[in-house]
Amino acid sequence: MELKNDLLLRAARGEKTERTPVWLMRQAGRILPEYRAVRNSLRDFIELVKTPERAAEVTIQPVDILGVDAAIIFSDILVIPEAMGCLYEMQEKKGPYFPKTVATEQDLNTLKVADAESDLGYVLEAIRITKKELNGRVPLIGFAGAPFTIFCYMVEGSGSKTFSKARKMLYTQPELAHQLLQMITDSTIAYLQAQVKAGADLLQVFDSWAGILGPEQYREFSLSYIRQICEALDGQVPLTVFAKGAWFALKEMSALPCQTIGLDWHMDPEECRKWVGTDKTLQGNMDPCVLYGNAKEVAGATRRMLEQFGPHRHIANLGHGVYPDTDPEMVKVFIETVKEYSSKMR
Ligand code: CP3
Questions:
Q1: Which of 53, 179, 194, 338 could be cross-linked to 316 through a Cys-Cys bond (beta carbons 3.0 to 4.6 Å apart)?
Q2: Residues belonging to the active site
Q3: What is the mean pLDDT of the chain?
Q4: How distant, in Å, are the alpha carbons of 187, 197, 337 from that of 308?
Q5: Is this model's pTM higher than 0.70 or not?
Q6: Are 140 and 134 in contact (CB under 8 A)?
Q7: pLDDT tens per residue across span 78-92
Q8: In a domain, 1, yes or no
């Protein structure tokens, strides 16, 4: 199926584009009343993720309602621990909770490397349905969590400000940590390859908790596994690595075989361009809190962001996922400003 709008893919590959493509991390779900309506018609979040027709429906909502240049498949990074045998619950207003965590070798022995087709077939089916229903309008982004971020949840058992239980294991049981990270990596590689086979046009790896490690530990416990993923997928579809808070690792990340690096709002786009060089596309990075301002402020901040990145090798996005209480009208101002202003920058 020929894509009618392939701006995202061309920008990722470093080709010149008529304007800058734009989408938002966490655009599916969270902010749209139309999402809430679908979600409330089902038992809970996990049931929605596992019902491919409905997951496809909420994946496409932001394309119809907001006018973004890409869809991202509605799922969660936590489907990987579940597929490995570490089940999660999604607690209303609190977030994920794992009744069983990994603390010992025995715990590890109860887990397996996930099989993409049999354990995660519902995501693959959602991708196939979404591709069909999108009918080539925009590319579909597939995704997974980076092994270290998944490790954080499997060891900690829930979200945390410090993830000190997870980080403790890096010091007290580094071998166990590496074994778990390798199992997550093997599961993730097979899963992402299956997503490409099902129709994903671009992949993003979310290392949401990268910023809690120092440079040495980041290299050993995160980057080395992200590299395995990039190498295994090299040459298939464009790949984006978003490591939140890992400004200290940008130079090393620029050596990964991936096409795009995502930036959060702590990072200055012009400085990052110097560290990364000209071979990669940059994605980001407006502070999601800007969207709490009025239309004039949102448009102004969006134009400043576009100026900082320049017209080429940029995919416009926020510096992290859009916050749940954001007014969709301000998201539209962000998107419309990118479209208009970046067309004039050429
Ligand atoms: O972009 C999209 O909206 C696609 C779907 C998507 C979800 N989660 C749906 C979701 C994506 C890409 C994710 C990724 C994800 N999930 C990350 C990485 C990105 C990031 O934000 O750093 C992380 C760390 C998670 C884990 C997770 N899932 C948490 C901490 C929570 C609770 C907080 C929250 O986001 O609401 C979730 C739940 C979740 N995942 C929801 C959605 C729409 C909310 C569940 C609901 O509808 O009640």
A1: 338
A2: 26, 30, 39, 76, 153
A3: 97
A4: 38, 36, 15
A5: yes
A6: yes
A7: 999 999 999 999 998
A8: no
Half-sphere exposure of 118 (CA within 13 A, CB side): 6
**For position 19, which CATH number holds?**
3.20.20.210
Rounded-to-integer distance, Cα 277 and Cα 295, Å: 34
Distance CA 140, CA 78 (A): 20
pLDDT digits (tens, 9 = 90+) for 206-248: 999 999 999 999 999 999 999 999 999 999 999 999 999 999 9
Split into its structural domains, the chain has a count of 1
- Domain range for 259 is 7-345
Domain assignment present for 42: yes
d(CA 238, CA 10): 9
Largest CA distance in the chain: 60
Q: How confident is the model at residue 205 (pLDDT cuts 50, 70, 90)?
A: very high
Q: Is the C-beta atom of 90 inside 6 A of ligand 1?
A: yes
129 within some domain: yes
**160 CB less than 6 Å from ligand 1?**
no
Pocket test for ligand 1, best of 23, 24, 26, 59 (most atoms within 8 A of CB): 26
